[in-house]
Amino acid sequence: MFSSTRTLLKAIKYQNLLNINQIILNQVKNRSYCQQITTLNKETSQLKTTQPGTEISSDKSFIEPLDATSNIIDVSTFTLTPEEESKIHQYDRASEKSVLEPSDEDVSHVTPILPATQTFARYANHSTTIQKLADLGVHLYRWEDNDKVMNLIVNLDYETQLKKYIMFFHETVGVPLDDLGPMLSKCPFLLEQKLDTMKARIEYLKGKKFQDSAIAQIIAKHPKWLQYRVEQIDERLGFFQQSFHLTGDEVRALCAQLPKLITHKKTQLLEVSFSVQEEMGFEKKEMKRMLLAHPRLWTQGTRCYN
Predict the structure, then answer these.
(1) Which UniProt keywords apply (predicted)?
(2) Buried (b) or exposed (e) across 94-104, using 16+ Cβ within 10 A?
(3) pLDDT digit string (tens) for 237-294?
(4) How many angstroms separate the CA atoms of 118 and 235, rounded?
(5) How far apart are CA 248 and CA 183, in angstroms?
(6) Is residue 57 classed as helix, strand or coil in its secondary structure?
(7) By CB neighbour count within 10 A (0-12 exposed, 13-18 middle, 19+ buried), where does 89 fall?
(8) First-to-final CA distance of the chain
(9) What is the reported pLDDT for 125?
(10) Virtual torsion, Cα 170, 171, 175, 180, nearest 10 deg
(11) Contact indicator for 111, 121 with CB cutoff of 8 Å
């Protein structure tokens, strides 16, 4: 009885495989078995079909009651033919096929989902973007501990995105190809800036009479300039011109010599100026000459003078 029941359950499981349209159970004398079928019929009668406009009848189940015209399958005598058993066996073997078995299918493109902390080397064979950045001399290893940069670079398409940035930096800004790698190594987030926005910032510098060579030098040395709004850069240039009584040419020369000084923390700039003038006793003209000759003094902090 139990062996036949297991066989029937197997037939139900592989009903589609064996092309069995409907299985009708014979009534059995086992009371608990009949109760299980009755319970299952009640639960099924409450379900609604997924087809719109149709419902399962409340008095009919997929396990139909016995009637005089039905083809009866007796639970106690049900068996599968050898052909059906072979078909089920082959299906199970195909479903459980070992990954170690030989296969002619090319799966070289299948790779595991890599965490953001993995090295770029894992992507190099399949990513044109990574290959082109490496060709430019970008120090990719600097970015591997930064999840945000990793996600940015891995999802960057070369033809539709990266190529446009390279052309902008080289042709519009004038950064030499040899300097593009080190420049992007310092500031990869330029690759998420809008090109139109960066173009407007370059046009601002040209409007302030910066030479093309000076603009290229500024961006190559300190690419974060392109992350600052025009209003911020304009305010900083005005700060240096007024604080140190600089001419326009002197401001432009200072920017080209040490561009990161312009975006340095203003509080530290004021502290150094106070230390040089008030504590060391230098006059404003002397402080101006010091700034133009040795601008790095203003990026060291007052601790260097204590």
Answers:
(1) Transit peptide
(2) eeeeeeeeeee
(3) 999 999 999 999 999 999 999 999 999 999 999 999 999 999 999 999 999 999 999 9
(4) 41
(5) 27
(6) coil
(7) exposed
(8) 97
(9) 78
(10) 0
(11) no
DSSP state, residue 27? P
Residue 191: name the closest of 221, 215, 160, 214 by CA.
160
Side-chain half-sphere of 215: how many Cα atoms within 13 Å? Answer: 21
| Residue at token pair 């030499």 | 176
Residue pair 161/131 in contact by the 8 Å Cβ criterion: no
Tokens, residue 60: 């009919």
With 0.90 as the threshold, say if the pTM is over it.
Answer: no
Q: Which amino acid is at 13?
A: K
Could you report the per-residue pLDDT of 25-65, keeping only the tens digit for each? 444 444 444 455 555 455 445 544 444 444 444 444 444 44
Instruction: Share the mean pLDDT of the chain.
Output: 78
- C-alpha 175/C-alpha 188 separation (Å) is 15
Bridge partners of 25, per DSSP, are 73
Q: Which two tokens stand for residue 247?
A: 């001419």
Nearest to 298 by CA among 258, 263, 267, 261: 261
